[in-house]
């Protein structure tokens, strides 16, 4: 979390430009993304520096030592708010956990059933679904899906696949 100022400054500079009242250059106070609290800053910093897609519980466990009176419900409330604002996205994995990451370009996610890690796969490596759907007159705003299977490391551990009823 050393680059806090840099990331937050960059985040604020790159917020979507919205049209506001012509009499004022300031956005209405009802736009929540203008309120970047210490908790939100810490959550965004943690997500920016995370090497994976953490759950709310992971975020809470990692930030609790740094934020006084932090609760898990505060983490959830801020995550939901940041998601509604389009700053972060949630990923629901087959094990029914919700993971979070900074919103970015469209990617597919590979969920390993063995180690339960999530890997990002650029969609260009899979197929160009946006262009295919555009040709058929669909308008796609965002693509997000999860492919499930075994990562290369788990394929070595379970060459015949994961046994039925396996729970790690």
Word description of this protein:
The protein is of the alpha+beta class and 168 residues long. It folds into two domains: 1-86, Orthogonal Bundle (Arc Repressor Mutant, subunit A); 105-168, 2-Layer Sandwich (Dna Ligase, domain 1). Helix content is 33%, strand content 16%. The chain is built from six helices and five strands, in the order ααααββββαβα. It has helices at residues 4-13, 38-49, 56-63, 72-84, 129-135, 152-157, and strands at 88-92, 98-102, 107-112, 118-122, 144-149. The strands form two sheets. The protein has a three-stranded mixed beta sheet with strand order 4-3-5, with no helix packed on it. A two-stranded antiparallel sheet has the order 1-2. The chain is flat and about 45 Å long.
Describe this protein with a few key phrases.
single chain, 168 residues, alpha+beta, Arc Repressor Mutant, subunit A, Dna Ligase, domain 1, 2 domains, 16% strand
Give a summary of the structure in a few sentences.
The chain is α+β, with helices and mostly antiparallel strands. It has helices at 4-13, 38-49, 56-63, 72-84, 129-135, 152-157; strands at residues 88-92, 98-102, 107-112, 118-122, 144-149.
């Amino acid at each position: 979390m050393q680059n806090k100022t840099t990331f937050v400054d960059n985040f604020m500079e790159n917020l979507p430009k919205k049209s506001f009242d012509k009499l004022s250059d300031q956005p209405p106070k009802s736009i929540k993304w203008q309120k970047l609290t210490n908790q939100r800053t810490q959550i965004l910093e943690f997500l920016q520096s995370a090497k994976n897609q953490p759950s709310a519980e992971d975020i809470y466990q990692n930030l609790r030592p740094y934020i006084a009176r932090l609760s898990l419900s505060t983490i959830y409330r801020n995550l939901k708010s940041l998601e509604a604002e389009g700053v972060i996205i949630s990923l629901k994995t087959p094990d029914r956990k919700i993971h979070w990451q900074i919103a970015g370009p469209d990617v597919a996610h590979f969920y390993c059933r063995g180690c339960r890690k999530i890997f990002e796969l650029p969609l260009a490596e899979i197929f160009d679904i946006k262009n295919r759907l555009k040709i058929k007159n669909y308008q796609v705003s965002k693509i997000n899906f999860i492919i499930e299977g075994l990562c290369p490391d788990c394929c070595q551990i379970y060459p015949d696949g994961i046994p039925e009823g396996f729970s790690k």
